[in-house]
Specification:
Strand content: 25-35%
Strand order of the largest sheet: 6-5-14-15-16-13-19
Number of strands: 20
Helix content: 25-40%
Number of helices: 12
Distance between the termini: 30 Å
């Protein structure tokens, strides 16, 4: 079976590896001519780490990223709202990792080219035309600055893993328009600093109109007594002002946001100092798209951000793309006929990811910070006067169920897999 994957990002490369493990040899077509380590930090939740571990990447992840110890939420004054263990420290069968997006991408790229061969990745191939004839899908690719045709390809299956501006998705939804902006801007950077809290802590502070997210992303720095700290400063601005198309390479100006965080100097971290210490800061609008009724059209389907672009809330973007990859590979391995397999994949993944998109629009688990902001805008003496531990726990547990990483479910899955392996 000839399988074409459009897009060589985290989702595209993970599905290439998963398909290879399932007995296929797909080809990945990537628009850019030179794949570079772009972006800043990402988080990989335990269920996604399970998939990557089964693809043989556990040691590389452990040597490169940070096995997250805990997650904490604070208000804008640095008062603690919620704290919970994560990954192995919370009793999950797999870790949660914080890692540079470029480092994770490189691990996947290296594994793909080694296992499938360098010729499985075609760079400088931009999808210009797609036609499903019923028996096959015909693809036309262009490349270079002039956009000249570089290849005509036929495939039995096409997987659109080409991101939030997916050409494959646009083919089926030509009138969808640009991504939907919620009025928030993210400024992102990476700063070498002293470790904070446990050295493996992830925290969020603020509320829905102004928030700061922070976590370490480098095992090498931790081992040397330092921290390579990924941070995100978020502010809601005038939504009528419009936004510039999101781009991992757009450099930002500190004057646009640093003054709003000048007072965020807490006992455990000086946030203005951390922001100022970044070599480069990037600007990115918070956007998503409405869930669609179908990903699969005949022999063509969508995956990752092409299928379900979501707000970066709850650490789910990369993780859900990785889960898509596993689900699709298993469907093709276990189902007779490619069209039936793609339909089975869509049935398994479309509604769960659509619910995450909708939940993230309601702030997902981060809504606890907004609740506290609304109930105690001037801070609190006793958190229990503002919100109960039962309410906090219920919000955290509900989101884990929506996102598919509640501990009981994953532990049961791990136990079942061990028993099957023993049999």
């Amino acid at each position: 079976m000839k399988i074409a994957i459009i897009g060589g990002g985290i989702g595209g490369l993970t599905v290439a590896l998963a398909l290879h493990k399932a007995g296929f040899r797909p080809t990945v077509y990537e628009s850019v001519g030179d794949i570079r380590a772009l972006g800043v930090g990402i988080n990989l939740l335990p269920h996604a780490v399970r998939v990557l571990s089964e693809l043989g990447l556990q040691r590389d992840l452990a040597e490169t990223g940070i096995a997250t110890r805990e997650l904490l939420y604070f208000n804008k004054f640095g008062q603690r709202i919620w704290q919970e263990d994560r990954g192995l420290d919370a009793g999950y069968p797999w870790p949660q990792y914080s890692i540079l997006r470029g480092a994770a991408h490189y691990l996947l790229l290296e594994a793909t080219t080694i296992r499938l061969g360098a010729d499985c990745l075609k760079t400088a191939h931009h999808l210009a035309r797609l036609e499903d004839t019923g028996d096959q899908v015909h693809l036309t690719f262009t490349g270079g600055r002039e956009g000249k045709p570089v290849a005509d390809v036929s495939a039995d299956i096409v997987i659109g893993a080409d991101g939030i501006h997916s050409e494959v998705r646009r083919h089926f939804y030509p009138d969808e328009g640009p991504p939907i902006w919620n009025g928030a801007i993210l400024w992102r950077g990476v700063t070498e600093s002293a470790p904070f809290m446990t050295g493996r802590s992830m925290f969020m502070a603020g509320h829905e109109n102004q928030k700061f997210v922070c976590y370490p992303v480098s095992r090498a720095h931790l081992d040397s007594g330092r921290s390579l700290t990924n941070w995100v400063a978020e502010r809601r601005v005038d939504p009528d002002a419009g936004f510039r198309r999101e781009d991992w390479n757009r450099k930002a100006n500190l004057d646009d946001f640093l003054p709003a965080f000048e007072d965020w100097r807490f006992d455990w971290l000086d946030i203005p100092q951390l922001i100022s210490g970044a070599e480069t800061v990037y600007e990115y609008p918070m956007v998503d798209r409405d869930p669609v009724a179908r990903w699969t059209h005949g022999r063509v389907t969508l995956l990752g951000d092409a299928a379900h672009p979501m707000y970066p809330i709850g650490s789910n973007g990369a993780s859900q793309a990785i889960l898509d990859a596993e689900s699709l590979a298993h469907a093709l391995r276990d189902t007779q006929g490619p069209i039936e397999a793609l339909s089975r994949y869509e049935s398994a993944r479309l509604e769960p990811t659509s619910e995450i998109v909708r939940s993230n629009r309601r702030n997902g688990p981060e809504q606890v910070m907004q609740i506290v902001e609304e109930r105690a805008p001037d801070g609190f003496d006793d958190l229990s006067d503002v919100i109960s531990q039962d309410e906090l726990q219920a919000i955290a547990d509900r989101y884990k169920r929506i996102a598919g990483f509640d501990k009981a479910r994953l532990t049961a899955a791990a136990s079942a897999a061990d028993k099957q392996a023993e049999a």
